Amino acid sequence: MIRTRVLTVNVPPLLQGVLTGIAVENPELLMVGDADTEHMLDATASKQPNVVVLGGRGAEVEALLARLRVLHPGLRVIALGREGERAVVHEPDCSPRVINAVSAANLLHMLLGRMQ
Fold first, then answer.
1. Which of 20, 36, 66, 92 registers the highest number of CB atoms within 10 A of its CB?
2. Is 110 in contact with 52 (CB distance < 8 Å)?
3. Which pairing describes strands 29-35 and 4-9: parallel, antiparallel, or unpaired?
């Protein structure tokens, strides 16, 4: 089975727990690490995720996203609001997709690239 490798960056502990719980219940997902801003690019290179989940808001997330898109253009990136209330899914060659009601079910779909 091919697993989707997930790296989290700047995700608050509560949301990290939610993501870990989703991964434990879904064998298609593998949490490969957690990084802070300073170590994001090194972690992305060494852990080779398919998906990066970014926690944060506004300009902070935009700056991180821009760096990832230049160095790792094939990644799916999920920018998750600090309280998990909103997400923006960035996929290669697609316009960003805003999700205003984040739930465990649609977060799973975002991680696996199955949003409709």
1. 20
2. no
3. parallel
